[in-house]
Amino acid sequence: MHFTNNKTLFTLIGIALCVTASATPVDEVLVIDEELEMTTRVQAVEGHPISEIYSGWHYRTPETRALEADSFANPGMLGVEQGEEIWHTVEGSEGKSCASCHDDAAVSMKGVGANYPKWDEKTQRPKNIEAQINSCRVENMGAEPYKFDKGGQKPLTAYIKNQSLGMPVELDLSEGEMQSWWEKGKETYYLRTGQLNLSCASCHEQNHGKHIRADHLSQGNVNGFPTYRLKQNKLISLHNRFRGCIRDTRAEFPDAFSDVLMGLEVYTTWRGTGLSVETPAVRQ
Question: Containing H/E element for 189?
Fold first, then answer.
C-alpha cells in the first residue's frame, strides 16, 4: 500500500478548506421513536486526545437529525428490513440461514454491534462484523463469501448492528494482539497523505466543529455505520467511507478490510467508546 505525500499548493488549499467558520455541535438529545434515549455525548476514555466525545448526529442539520430520530422516516431502516429477510434466507450447500444457528437476532445479536471488531485467533487479526458474516457463510452455510459491499453484506451488517441500538460502544483491547492493531490504526489516523497532505486528524480532531465548504466537520466517530448518507442516497459501509476520505485527500486508497483499514477501524471504534450504537445513523 502506498500513500503519496506531496507538499504542493494543494496542501495550502486543503488546510484553508478546513479552517473556515466554526459552529458548535447542537445541544440536543437524540431519542429514537420517543422511547430510546441515545448517549450521543460522553466523557472520553483515558488516553483520548479529546475530552468530550460527540456523535456525528450533533453536527447535522435539524432535518437530518429528525430523520434518525424516527425509525419510520429513517431511510436506512429499509436496509435493516432487507437484512432481516437475508437473516432468514437459506443459502449454501448446508441448507442453513443465519437464523438456523442464531435464531432470534434480537436476542443472539444483542451487544454484537457494540463490541466488534474482536480478535480472531484463527486469522491472527481483528475481525469485524462483515468478516464474521463471511466466516459463517463459508464455514457453516457452505455459501460463497460476500464481496465487498456486494450482495447482502451491507444490509445484513446493518441488521445485526441495529440489534445493539442504544448500547454503548466498548472494545476489548486486551484480546490477542488488539492493542498492536490499535497502534497501527492510530498511526494511520495521524498520517498525512495525498496531494492535500491531510490526515483523519486534520479534519476530525484538529478542526471538528468547523466547516469544509457546506459540511460541518464532526469528530468522525463510527458508531452509526453502516450509515445512510443522503448525499449518496444509500447505506454506506465503514470501509467505503474510509476509502472515500482517503480518496478525497487525493491519495491512493487501500483495499477494504486490508490491514491498514482494519487497524483504522479498531482505532476509530475505540475513539467513540461510550457512545450509543446508532446504526443506521443518518448523515448528509
Answer: helix 178-190
pTM of the model: 0.92
- Provide the grid cell at 78: 429499509
**CB-based contact 188:260 (threshold 8 Å):** yes
Question: Catalytic site residues?
Answer: 245
- DSSP run (H or E) holding 105: helix 105-108
Domains of the chain and CATH, by start: 9-74+170-283 (1.10.760.10), 77-162 (1.10.760.10)
Burial readout 198-232 (b: 16 or more C-beta within 10 A, e: otherwise): bbbbbbbbebbbbbbeeebbbbbbbbbbbbbbeee
CA atoms of 36 and 20, how far apart (whole Å):
35
- Residues 6 or more apart whose Cβ sits within 8 Å of residue 249: 14, 193, 194, 195, 196, 197, 198
pLDDT digits (tens, 9 = 90+) for 232-270: 999 999 999 999 999 989 999 899 999 999 999 999 999
Other CB atoms within a 10 A radius of the CB of residue 262 amount to: 22
- Residue 224 to residue 232: CA distance in whole angstroms: 16
Q: Compute CA distances 116 → 109, 255, 264, 265, whole Å.
A: 11, 20, 13, 10
